[in-house]
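Box S1 | Example of a co-folding query
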Amino acid sequence: MTTAPDAATDTPPNFVREIIVADQQTGKHDGRVVTRFPPEPNGYLHIGHAKSICLNFGSAQEFGGRCHLRFDDTNPATEELEYVQSIQADVRWLGFDWGEHLYFASDYFERLHGHAVELIEAGKAYVCSLSADEIKEYRGNFYKPGTDSPYRNRSVEENLDLFARMRAGEFADGAHVLRAKIDMASSNINMRDPPIYRIKKATHHRTGDKWCIYPMYDFAHSLSDAIEGITHSLCTLEFEDHRPLYDWCVDNVSVPSKPRQIEFAKLNFTYILLSKRRLLQLVQQRVVDGWDDPRMPTLSGMRRRGYTAEAIRGVCERVGVSKHNSTIDISLLEHAVREHLNATSPRVMGVLDPLKLVLTNWPEGQVEWIEAPYFADDASRGARKVPLGRELYIEREDFKEVMVKGWHRLSPGTEVRLRHVGIIKCEEVVKDAAGELALLRCTLDMETRGGSAPGRKVKGTIHWLSAAHALPIEARLYDRLFLKENPGDVPEGGHFIDNMNPQALQVVRGAFVEPSLAGAAPGTRVQFERLAYFCVDPDSSKDLLVVNRTISLRDSWAKEEGKPAGKPAGKG
Ligand code: ATP
Ligand code: MG
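Box S1 (continued) | Returned holo structure for adenosine-5'-triphosphate
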């Protein structure tokens, strides 16, 4: 059974779903739904690809079909095994599974070559010996029809012979190309005898040196779809003008099925750049620390930063599928991440900028392990034990030596609630020899232990750690990578890298977290109460936990355009 969208609910628009529903009603493709996600292994996947993954795998899931993962590996020069592996890991992480349907366009090289020969034999392809520049010139433009290549009327025999010698490696790169013989006067430039095979003497990551001719994208892609029995070939809008060529390829060789190409709008966000070419520049110029740098809009970067697959899938679903390109406000993604982390991240206490505090009425050497729930509003979701001793760390910004109006945290002589403990009063401020704040001496009101303090009006609650038990951490505070809403918008002579946010990463050393996080596995996500969401980084070692700030608790960009978030604001 198919599930048509319910008009009564506010299901986001998805015209692809409507096409599939209609196809199933008319019995097209015998009701089958076979889609594919076809990445070129020339970079890591980014959040834009997530939309294509969700659409392809999601449609197959929804309609009881299947989705293939096919690597479009027809360009040996830019493709690498590392990318093949990272792409598979990212698709899995997003929550999708291709089962046994893992394919490589390179697996079809022999077959695609056969189809090229088939075209030559039918007089529908020829070997052209113009240079690349000449081909471009002969092609004309939008206003000017193309001119036939002088090689267009080579005989079938001559074409077969030249194509065989191209394959045998007799010619240098660029000496000849195989072109489809379509129509040099077509109003669609893609139909003006497009090259379908080129010579490229490069080692391929899978076929090694077996081939020195490689199929061009349009030819390889359409025929790979047809070979695999893809029913709905979903691609982005820039391929709309390629559709006639897609159909031409499928119609003119003997493939087992006829897929339909359907174009949808790309996903794009403000404040990030989604182009593998540009992301590669960031990596190669070492502006970021690799493809999975948590500042990157790659799926591996977002994962490392602590973004969840659920949040990303949710956003892809919410923006819908349409034919109109648009740019989505990045705060929509950030909001989805925050919302999911709020619902799922255990609360713990960490201190980024420690200030020592001594509880003068707490016996030296005494430690009490307090049971503290991970979620304040639902004790059934678990708890951990937090040690309380005489010496504590609190957040430096939770203390102000001079009180100001509206200040509800600690100051000389004022009271504040210590999370999970009770009310303390600041009795004395101790300075070091240089006159710098060294520690606070406070008393704990034992009557207020356990949360009950009838009649006591204390507005502020602060987080803390037992100094003797606190685990040292390195906190990497991440923020948006670019300061500009459209980072690709650069003045003349400028470069998009100039639009980077210099404060997109601030490394905080000398910070601490409660001992419950000892040995936490990379990928563990928590909320540091009152600060932000954090995720344990794989750089962590036995002696030092490294945590990445995934996102602040509130949107610090909402107020001022173009201003990076400062420190996360604590509650007053
Ligand atoms: P980029 O434009 O970032 O270099 P690409 O399109 O060259 O990416 P591919 O590996 O060819 O990268 O993409 C695999 C699939 O993902 C294609 O079907 C492509 O149309 C789709 N895709 C790429 N970018 C987006 C995006 N921003 N939104 C939705 N789908 C996308
Ligand atoms: Mg592409």
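The radius of gyration is 31 Å. Residues 38-40, 48-49, 51-52, 235-236, 266-268, 274-277 surround adenosine-5'-triphosphate (ligand 1) (CB under 6 Å).
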